[in-house]
């Protein structure tokens, strides 16, 4: 969901339990072909499609209304109302931010528990990404015919910059979008068909990031999204969606899961690109030695 009045990411959600999107993804193998169409329709416009009537959901998925009801039953819900109630609870969690969350007391016990949760967050984030999505994004990023554009939000900008650092060491034509919207408009005008736009957007989702994705898609770019388990509305236009766990026992969300995914992607690119990237890296080091004695 979009919060136009407060476009700041980084507020922690209510709990770390699996989302409905997680349950849908995990259930794919057990669904019929028609039910999988319903699942894909839900994930493509998550959670918006699930908040619509059964008839509208069925129309979007191009299946029958009874198929939608069988689909939600296989997810473990007693009915469509129960399914929508679960979605509403997730949407309420998305609306939380640091002022609404309890703060730790700073004791050794609290710090120790937080430390353990960091490890779990990385493990969960890596488990959430599919090898197919990772390989597909790697294929796009090693194709030097494509220019790469990246954008992070108020909270996720460090993750976008971290990926940009790795990419520009291994290939040319890598750009960070400006946070200043008038300048970003100029940069968006440079996008050509088949270029790649990578966006980072977690709750509370930023409207300018969503609009950037829509414009990039209209210009023919391939859009990749790094988001949280609830998924930014950018997912509606994204070709690749990579989710990370961002919630911890803290008032604040964490970037550690996103950073782990960025570094995993960088390693994947390095493994495929190093024979070519090595020449670029050596050239950079030669210039660096002259510039910084």
Automatic annotation (TrEMBL):
InterPro entries the UniProt entry points to: Homeodomain-like_sf, HTH_RpiR, RpiR-like, RpiR-like_SIS, SIS_dom, SIS_dom_sf, WH-like_DNA-bd_sf
The HTH rpiR-type domain, residue ranges: 18-94
Domain of life: Bacteria
Keyword Transcription regulation: yes
One Pfam family hit: SIS
Molecular function in Gene Ontology: carbohydrate derivative binding; DNA binding; DNA-binding transcription factor activity
Residue ranges, annotated region (Disordered): 1-28
Full protein name: MurR/RpiR family transcriptional regulator
Organism expressing this protein natively: Kaistia nematophila
Lineage: Bacteria, Pseudomonadati, Pseudomonadota, Alphaproteobacteria, Hyphomicrobiales
């Amino acid at each position: 969901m979009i919060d136009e009045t407060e476009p700041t990411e980084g507020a922690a959600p209510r709990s770390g339990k699996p989302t409905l999107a997680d349950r849908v993804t995990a259930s794919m193998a057990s669904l019929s072909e028609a039910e999988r169409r319903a699942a894909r329709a839900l994930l493509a416009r998550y959670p918006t499609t699930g908040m619509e009537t059964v008839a509208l959901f069925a129309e979007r998925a191009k299946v029958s209304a009874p198929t939608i009801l069988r689909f939600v039953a296989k997810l473990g819900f007693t009915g469509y109302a129960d399914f929508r109630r679960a979605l509403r609870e997730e949407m309420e969690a998305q609306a939380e931010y640091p002022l609404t969350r309890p703060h730790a007391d700073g004791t050794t016990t609290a710090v120790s528990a937080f430390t353990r949760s960091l490890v779990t967050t990385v493990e969960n984030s890596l488990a959430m990404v599919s090898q197919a999505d990772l390989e597909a994004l790697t294929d796009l990023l090693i194709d030097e015919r494509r220019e790469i554009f990246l954008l992070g939000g108020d909270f996720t900008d460090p993750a976008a910059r971290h990926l940009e650092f790795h990419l520009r060491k291994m290939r040319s034509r890598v750009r960070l979008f400006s946070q200043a919207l008038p300048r970003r408009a100029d940069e968006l005008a440079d996008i050509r068909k088949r270029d790649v736009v990578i966006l980072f957007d977690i709750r509370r989702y930023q409207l300018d990031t969503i609009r950037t994705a829509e414009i990039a898609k209209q210009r023919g770019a391939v859009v990749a999204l790094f988001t949280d388990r609830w998924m930014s509305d950018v997912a509606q236009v994204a070709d690749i969606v990579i989710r990370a766990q961002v919630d911890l026992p803290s008032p604040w969300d964490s970037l550690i899961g996103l950073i782990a995914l960025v570094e995993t992607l960088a390693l994947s690119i390095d493994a495929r690109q190093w024979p070519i990237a090595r020449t670029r890296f050596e050239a950079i080091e030669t210039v660096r030695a002259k510039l910084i004695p």
